[in-house]
């Protein structure tokens, strides 16, 4: 029997793209996320693509990020940015809003949330 991956539960590439776009749209429009918005370039197209490519592979779909850039080395790539509890929480809060706005089933949210929470916490490089 084939395993149903998070990628499948998210709706494959179109669903992951919706999630990423909802995340960045909300981050860009809500001042509550100014801290994490400031870590991004003025134009978000590249950031949207990189998160989309990463989340596709991370969730069990095609390894689009690896095909373009090699191993994600996610934590190392984020070391230039001060990421503490506040930034982690902003990212998670914004992602939670994006997940809800995509109308994903509760089972998908339940499967996705611990993985996203662990990922966000792993990115911390500040004690606060």
Structural class by secondary-structure content? mainly alpha
Shape: globular
What's the number of extended β-strand segments? 0
CATH homologous superfamily (4th level) name: Globins
How much strand?
under 5%
Structure annotation, total helices: 8
End-to-end distance, in Å? 44 Å
* Number of domains as seen in the coordinates: 1
Radius of gyration: 14 Å
Note poorly predicted spans.
none
Let me know the average pLDDT: 93
What share of residues is helical? 55-70%
- Sketch the major β-sheet: none
CATH topology term: Globin-like
What would your notes on this structure say?
This protein is mostly helical and 128 residues long. The chain has a single domain, classed as Orthogonal Bundle (Globin-like). 67% of the residues lie in helices and 0% in strands. The chain has eight helices and no strands. The chain is globular.
Topology:
Layout: H1 6-10, H2 12-29, H3 34-37, H4 45-58, H5 64-69, H6 74-78, H7 85-101, H8 106-122
Summarize this, please?
The protein is mainly α and 128 residues long. The chain has helices at 6-10, 12-29, 34-37, 45-58, 64-69, 74-78, 85-101, 106-122.
Give the key terms:
67% helix; 0% strand; globular; mainly alpha; Globin-like; 128 residues
